[in-house]
Amino acid sequence: MTAAPPRLSLDGVVMTHPRRSHAARALSAALGDLRVVMDPHPGGSNALITSIEAWGAYAPDATHHLVLQDDVIVRPDLLAQARRAVELFPDAALSFYANWDSLNGAAARLALMAGCGWVEAVRWEFFPTLATVLPVRLLDEYGRFAEAAAQVHFEDDEVLFDFLQVKGVPGYVSVPALVEHGDLTSLVGNPKRRAACYGAGEPLRGPGQDRLAHSLTLCPFFYRGMAFLLVRVGELDDHAWRYVHWSRVAPRLGLDPVALRRRFDREFAASVAPWASQGQTEFLFSLWVVALLLGLIPRTGHLKISGPPASGAMSEADATQHQALIAAALGTLAPGALMDSALPDDAFAGRSEWLLRIAHDGYEAGREAGGGVGHVGLT
Known about the structure:
By secondary structure, the chain is an alpha/beta fold. The chain contains twelve helices and 14 strands. Strands 2-1-3-7-5-8-6-10-14 form a nine-stranded mixed β-sheet, with helices on both faces.
């Protein structure tokens, strides 16, 4: 007789610092009075040390443990969504957030364009820890691993990434993010960042929410004002990545960089002209190109999808929600790429709708290309 699978049970805590305990208490109350775990050494503001305490504070009967940082904005149905995620991926590390300027944020955007609710984390950077679930069976060992790492590290997301790599635990990121980064001042000096795409509003629905994008081999990445492609090299299980300027990979996609630039200049000459003397035109062209690649790559076989197959057209409500999420993801491309770029963060202050229009035009150009990508930019 086959034994029944264990009942899955999720508990959670909020990790915080005494200076931000008011925010932690408010977040805890909003989610049904989760336990609040305080930084044991508040003078040092060490996120890793606090996270070790938080990961160790799991309930005896829990199979999965959620740790939230105190500066998140949450959907009212976060815990229900987290329980659903645990049922989908009981053996994985799960993150409900990815920065708008991170590699995982780039992968999340691409997965969204492919109609997926999850994406395999990019194994080349930290694993996002703003809102994260781990199986409880890993936590005692992770605690020992993290305590040893704390001698030389203080970033919990980097140490968790290393642990997942060593143990071979898969990591998945929700698409869209189920939490947003709030406005509290960072205790360790990090600049304010937002999610690549935050799923605010109505509960997520539709068959796509259970689909996982994985085995990515190409992923558009708009970083510090430049258009890159994240390229997987070697075998898939090597998880070896490089990022290169998009124009070097363009011929593989049937794209002509010169022709694309001519098309962009022709279509946006009037609106972009005022920015030419300020050196911002290249940023705007890169924005358009990355959006084009986001529209194109899901149709070129550079990712795989697991989960329920697409069954005909989306319902009108699902299609409306999906389009709103796509607009949200396109809308974070420019502000994310401005971070740490040569341009000031307010370079395009008050022009968010115009930037979104440029990104949306590029995205539609990529979608129109479909399988016949060679003609893009040649008309």
